[in-house]
Amino acid sequence: MTMNVLLVMLAAAGITFGAQHKATFLHGRFSFLDNMLKCTYCTGFHGGWIAYLLFSAPFIRIQEAVLSAFAGAIFSYALDEAIKFLEESEYGDDD
Question: What torsion, rounded to 10 degrees, do the Cα atoms 66, 54, 37, 67 define?
Fold first, then answer.
């Protein structure tokens, strides 16, 4: 069970990263979509329920999809911030 949750969260983060940085065809079409893609928490929310649907089909439970959406949001946001911190620490000034 724990492995399934981790897999869904990693998939949500992957979907989030892909939508924000690799799916360039999504950018510049609608202001609402552009604003969502700027926000890792917002995009992670959608990545969470998408990952849940992919993992759980055809046995989908609405409560679990909603929980996965919020878990994907915070997981994607926290992972993004941790990576930013590590990148800044590695490449930042060593005063």
Answer: 20
Rounded to an integer, what distance in angstroms lies between the CA atom of residue 74 and that of residue 54? 19
Q: Is residue 17 scored above 80 in pLDDT? A: yes
Residue of 37, 44, 38 whose CA lies nearest to 72? 44
CB count within 10 Å of CB 57 equals 8
Collapsing DSSP to helix, strand or coil, 51 comes out as: helix
Q: What is the mean pLDDT of residues 7-33?
A: 94
Confidence of residue 89 (pLDDT cuts 50, 70, 90): confident
Cβ atoms of 43 and 19 within 8 Å: the answer is yes
How far is the C-alpha of 64 from the C-alpha of 82, rounded, in Å?
A: 26
